Amino acid sequence: MYEDLRKSTKEKYENEDIPIENFDPYDYSEHDEEQTRKQFLGMTSFQRFVLAVMLFLMTCVLAAFVLVLTGKIYLPIL
Q: Which of 28, 41, 51, 78 is most buried, by the most CB atoms less than 10 A from its CB?
C-alpha cells in the first residue's frame, strides 16, 4: 500500500516540468494578503504618521478654542 503511494508520487513529480531543486513551496498569495492587511486604508506608514499628527494638532486647537469659549482661559489680546 505505501509502496504504491511512493511510486505514484514519484511518477507525478517526474512528469512535471519544474525540477524539484527549483521548487519553491512558499505560497506568495498569503504574503500579498499580509502586506495589504498591514496597510490601513491603503496608506504607507509615513502617510499614517502625518494623518495622526494632523489629528492631534486639530484636537489641540479645538480644545483651546473650547476653553476660550467657555471662559476657563482668556487671551491677553482681547
A: 51
- The string of pLDDT tens digits covering residues 44-66 is 889 999 999 999 999 999 999 99
Report the distance separating Cα 42 and Cα 47, nearest Å: 10
Residue with cell 505505501: 2
pTM above 0.85, yes or no: no
> Which residue carries 492631534 as its cell?
56
What is the CA 34 to chain-centroid distance, rounded? Answer: 6
Give the closest residue to 39 by CA, choosing from 28, 21, 51, 57: 51
Residues 3-13: tens digit of each pLDDT: 676 777 666 66
